[in-house]
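Researcher: Here's my situation. A collaborator sent me these components and asked whether they could plausibly form a single complex. I don't have experimental data yet, so a predicted model of the whole assembly would be a useful starting point for our discussion.
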Amino acid sequence: MAAWMLKIEAGWTAARYPYRNVVNDIQVPGIKEDRLDPVAGRDGALAGRYYDVAIIGGGVVGAAIARELSRWDVSVVLLEKENDVAVHTSSRNDGMIHDGFAARPGTKKAHYNVRGNRLWEPLCRELGIEFKRPGSLMLFSTPLEVAAYPLLADRARRNGVDGWEYWSRARVFAEEPNVAMDQHGGFFLPSAGVLSPYKATIALVESAILNGANIELGTWVTGMELESGSIARVVTNRGTMRAGVVVNAAGNWADVIAGMAGDRFFSLHQRRGTDVILDATTAPLQHHIMGRPSLSQARTRTKGGGLVMTVEGNILVGPTAHEMPGREDYETRAEELEELTKHVRLNTRLSMAQAITYFSGVRPCTYDEDFIIERSQRVSNLVHAAGIQSPGLASAPAIAQDIAAMALERVATFKAVRPRTGWLADRPAAPEPKRMSAERRSELIAQRPAYGRIVCRCEEISEGEVIDAATAVLPATNMDAVKRRTRAGMGRCHGGFCTPRVMEILARETGGPLWSVTKKGPGSELGVGPTKGPRP
Amino acid sequence: MIHSVDTDIVVLGAGPAGLAAACAALEAGARVLVLEREDRLGGILKQCIHDGFGLVRYHERLSGPEYALRDVDRLERLGAQVMQEAFVSSTRRVDNGFELTCVDRGGVFAVRALALILATGCRERTDRQVFVQGDRPAGIYTAGLAQYMINIQGVLPGRRAVILGSGDIGLIMARRMTLEGMDVVAAHEVKPEPSGLSRNIHQCLEDYGIPLELSSTVTAVHGTKRVERVTVASVDGSMRPIAGTEHDIPCDTLILSVGLIPENELAQSLGVPLDPATKGPFVDQTMHTLVDGIFSCGNAVHVNDLADYVSESGEHAGASAARYVARRRDAPVTGMATRTLVPVRVDQGFLYAVPQYIDTSTLTDAVMYFRARRTMPSGAVVTAEAGGKTCFKASYPLVRPPEMERFVIPHDTLMGALAARRDDEGLGLRMEAR
Amino acid sequence: MMECKEFTCIACPRGCRLVVTVDDGVASVSGNACPKGATYGAQEAVQPMRTLTTTVTVEGSSRRRLPVRSSADLPLSRILDAMAALDPIVVRLPMRRGDIVVPDLLGLGVDIIATDNLAAPTSGVAQDADP
């Protein structure tokens, strides 16, 4: 790992120079870097097809871009290699809509974060998903840190953050009765919010689909063919298609995608983070996001982490941040879990004994540690939304606005771009019976008894909700996709009770044999065959 | 307004514990409503198609479904009110007992009862709680889930399996998977001793030549879509992997049999105090928890080995709840006698003992269950005493943590000892090596 | 030829550790706490016998499998043959505990009987049986 850090440090050092960006091809002995595995051809469904805009990457940024583009009368396709959206980074984060304070002033991160923060709440109303704004409290551990308040306030002001307050020690205790004793007041940013990042991604895609956008899952871009300085064809595992404009929103593979177009002007290095999820009994124990700022915040490359409440009522502890090779390596190491206990101490009523599970995510980072939101300088019809590390989720709607504008500007060079008539802002959300009043829930069940048959007893999810997920605008076709939409499988028993029941429903809805229901797409079937008859 | 149902006793769960409790309560003349979240009665026994059930209770060797059917038939004959696929969404105490908000295909409804019997069983420990590190491909199943898939759904979970844990469910599944044509490579147990019953080691592993590796654990699972191999390593005395002992086993299935956790979310939400040693409610010898009117039985109280004893605890809970309800109906609320509970104090030789309290007003014998903290191969002498008087003494040729033991203290000798004690003294249980 | 085997008795939950010496097909058992153990030990050392519990395929219902057992023990050495013989068996509901699914399996004098009651599907919900 020391050798790996040397490579990263070299990249950071190079980034200090006033070049456009850094490409780091240093090979570290013993570490084999990830390549996009060759993918077997699946079908020729995309052969010869044309779209005005092809977005590569079905994470929250790609999804938000698709929705923005769907406001216009242009043909859009979202190409995603996995068998659902939000499989990687977009479902592996704490869901926090940052206030915008942490990013260095003048960076794209700071700019897009603050813009995005303002956009999310009304956007969630349109998408039919929950948004909460608990605000973020950064606790001072020493009087020295309190003295730094003016510096913090100045940074918040320069970033254009929507509000900041100094809270005295007494005020902190009043707001957070369970806070640890060793605090000296805090810096409160009321604009910090939280949402479910995978539900948001799914909702954005569904909204785009309702407005005419297309999505192709299980679709890998394997190459691009250029002519006269622009992308003429996009080669995929499902045939070679054409696109007027290509948007690179490919997350941890954005540099590889850029390379396919001959425009690899940056390299990504991966920074892994782990969060621990505490059970829902912790929900009433805290009211605001809490953390401790580091006075060296300017020098640290990732926001320090803390205790983040989710919209579902859990508390997330973390994240950690470690430079690790592996673009999709989510292995969680025991040492990282131990690292997180320092955050838990901020709240006297929390402990790791309340942990139900943990997860890791990988941030795609450029060496200048900022977003890349720009048209390609070499390829005339390529736009990049790359290096979207934290605060990527918060920034997504704002990034989408600018990327969509860049794409449309190019589309306008070959066709008239008009607003889509009858564009639907609202995306109807599926019912969540558990959260309804008893009367309303009874009415719903009377209409559809399946809403009364509970299949996930940890999270109280009904058969009706699983069916809704399997038959939605962007349907869930595997177990993980059902989990992202309904939370079935996310409770204490980790799927012990609900797995067979969800399998039955998916098999029925997708029309396949029970054993062939997959966890996350072909190759991840839960069974290998029936228990009788010829053995597979 | 939602539909409301009134009854004397609600039994939550129609597995062996709840079935026995409901029968006992009905036989004692109480009105009983059974709420079961599945579409059939019998609980976990429906999928336990192997035999070995009923040796104590019926002196027969029955399969799980056969054992459950005895109680299901009896329940039917007693004319019980049963609601299947009914889910309890929330509960709260009300003036005269408890109110449960439930949901089923008919809608949301309320149930009001004077007493509750929590027979909610247990759930399986999963990889997260055991902190098996690694990717999350398909092919990782708890033993109970694999059992459901094979026995109820007819789905073969994989071709080649490694089992982590030597708990009974894992051992049973080692045999079951082998019979259904899977290759079971080995079972790995992190402790230096097996966790399951000796006869299961014999009939499920030795019969089929499946090795059991002790002091060994799975440290990583490999494969992005489906399990491709697992890494196993030997562990030291503190159950930590020993560097350099790792090796990989190619397989497509990892079965986890790493323990059971009593399900007590509902109990907690009602403020029922739980014993950290059992992870179940504190109970007296009639299976009455420390909250008046709430009873508990079966694996919700502590993880049992034998369904026979689960049924026994259910019978006690049902009879006790019926007596409680009769007293409530006969006396105004303010006239209810509070129980005099004497704590049971165990020494270091015990992992736990249930019940944790003795209600001195009860007229029945006290049935005690316990687990030893460590294996004592030459056996142990267990004594129960209070006030200097021994009210029970027995010699066990072998005690080990995985095998739960049971003994009965006759009522008179128990009361005699308790009467002789000081006020602050409890009933003391002692375990001495032979 | 004399052979010595050691194993745990399964006649009751006590699990005594038995030591059995077999001399010319005659077994002599020690370590048992009761006569059942002596009987079991002798049999186990010479020809182990086991109850077979498994499932058979159900047709025409969403209840895909019926649990069954052998009516008596059969030799351990024949268990896999028995499984193979039961593999193609298909039953239709209703089935009740005790119903004979296969009489005299493999000519071993042992029936395969149902161990659970599975009701016939209510009209209109029959589905393809095989998972």
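Model: Some features of this prediction you could bring to your collaborator: The longest helix of chain A spans residues 108-127. Residues 295-300 of chain A have pLDDT under 50 and may be disordered.
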